[in-house]
Write a structure and sequence with these properties.
Belongs to the peptidase S28 family. It is a single chain. The protein is an alpha/beta fold. It has a domain of about 250 residues: Rossmann fold, CATH 3.40.50.1820. The chain is about 40% helix and about 10% strand.
């Protein structure tokens, strides 16, 4: 009955939204420890690591014959019947193993459907480097990193799987799965290649959060993060005071010594000047935004080993009268240590600076997602500041500021105006899906993409389930 019901929903629902939000990073890939922990702590599933040879570097040109090898993971333990379904994960901006280990839903239902399971790695991430060590060294190479090229990779891989790799799969239905950016790719795959992907389950996928689209307020992201912390026992004022204390301590020699010693900061990233206090405070903000995303009621290792309800755990440090600047700063340290060192295995914390492993270092290169957010994935996000949220005010969002950052960051590659296309995603994929079918958009009240997704989906279409506590 359950399998039949799920297939029924995929077949008849134009857009089904069940309850369940980035500028230069997708929070799902924030921590440099994510891949390490995912692989070390959760080796529950088995797969073959395979490669698709001769994937075109450029799918949209007939003058470039170059190709590369695209990695994918395959499990066919349950794939026995003729034309049984294929569950296909559209890889995010990261090494594919982490997503394979943490997408349990696919593994749980595959036996019921007799489905093959495929996790396809996104070009320029993980081991799938089209130009090897030269992939990120020049504009001529990095220009081939885009969502549309990745979708074409997936399309070619699906065609190969159905017609060559898998036996008796020529007419197998393909159901896409993805979360966050991967969820966006699943939805766009169904729109662009409906003859290859029969349906898609896109979890936490803000497909309409772009410029000049009727989307939620640009401060919605941090509003939801703040709500999560307030509901878990924190107050906006106490968090703001703790970050202000870090900035104030960084202004004096004694204060900097305190931060370096008590925070156990790595020699590679010491607070040596007042401006470093801003970087350390920004690390607190990053961790808050990520903890809100992984605030599961049970222990998990998705982005890092964490206890159940980690936000509530982080707020315990703020529950007593903190008093001095030292006490306020140490409350922030407790939050950082919870996220980066819950196991106690890290002897120090390397949180900022060019000499630290970057937040994207485990993804293959630190510039992958920043490049995408500087070309096609320009998303309007900012913070209002107190009393709305505890962060430094950065609203309203200005496209010119985003472009300046990109021009600065990719200066060595020769980044220029023509490469910055903030409207392209909506021109390419659309601002609504009037003819789309079989796209299941999943969002949960506990996660902060809910505002972005819930206010962007045309509710007059599809079926909707709202469950508290989900």
């Amino acid at each position: 009955m359950v399998p039949n019901l799920l297939l029924f929903l995929l077949i008849v629902s134009p857009i089904l939204a069940i309850e369940k939000p980035w500028m230069r990073r997708d929070p799902i890939t924030l921590t440099k420890f994510s891949r390490h922990f995912a692989l070390k702590e959760a080796p529950k599933y088995k797969w073959q690591e395979l490669w698709y040879d001769n994937m075109p570097i450029d799918h949209f040109s007939f003058s470039d014959p170059r190709s590369f090898r695209l990695r994918y993971l395959l499990n066919t333990d349950n794939f026995r019947d003729k034309n049984a379904p294929i569950f296909f994960y559209t890889g995010n901006e990261g090494s594919i193993e982490g997503f394979a280990e943490n997408t349990g839903f696919m593994w749980d239902i595959a036996p019921e459907f007799g489905a093959a399971i495929v996790f396809a790695e996104h070009r320029f991430y993980g081991k799938t480097q089209p130009f090897g060590n030269e992939s990120y060294t020049k504009l001529e190479n990095l220009g081939y990193l885009s969502s549309e090229q990745a979708l074409a990779d997936f399309a070619q891989l699906i065609d190969y799987l159905k017609n060559e790799k898998l036996p008796n799969a020529k007419h197998s239905p393909v159901i896409g799965f993805g979360g966050s950016y991967g969820g966006m790719l699943t939805a766009w795959m169904r729109i662009k290649y409906p003859h290859l992907m029969d349906g898609g389950i896109a979890a936490s996928a803000p497909v309409f959060w772009f410029l000049n689209v009727p989307t939620p307020p640009e401060d919605a992201y941090d509003k939801i993060v703040t709500r999560t912390f307030v509901n878990s026992g924190c107050s906006v004022e106490s968090i703001k005071q703790s970050m202000d204390a870090i900035r104030d301590l960084a202004k004096t020699e004694n204060g900097r010594r305190f931060l370096n010693d008590k925070f156990r900061l790595s020699p590679k990233a010491l607070v040596e000047r007042p401006s470093d206090g801003d970087l350390l405070a920004d690390s607190v903000k990053d961790v808050m935004e990520t903890l809100a995303m992984v605030d599961y009621p049970y222990p998990a290792t998705f982005l890092a080993p964490l206890p159940g309800w980690p936000v509530k755990e982080a707020c315990k440090a703020y529950s007593t009268r903190l008093g001095s600047q030292h006490g306020l700063a140490m409350a922030a340290h407790a939050m950082l240590n919870l996220f980066y060192n819950y196991t106690g295995q890290q002897k120090d914390l390397c949180l900022f600076g060019n000499d630290c492993p970057g937040t994207f270092s485990e993804l293959g290169d630190p510039d992958g997602w920043p490049w995408q957010s500087c070309t096609e994935m320009v998303m309007p996000m900012c913070s209002q500041g107190p009393p709305t949220d505890p962060f430094s005010a950065s609203c309203p969002f200005h496209v010119r500021d985003s472009f300046r950052w990109c021009q600065d960051h990719f200066a060595k590659l020769g980044f220029r105006t023509e490469l910055f296309r903030p409207q392209w995603a909506m021109i390419n994929y659309g601002t609504e899906y009037p003819t789309a079918t079989n796209i299941v958009i999943v969002f949960f009240l506990l996660l902060y993409w809910i505002t972005v997704i819930a206010l962007s989906i045309p509710y007059q279409r599809g079926l909707f389930f709202r469950r508290r506590g989900a």
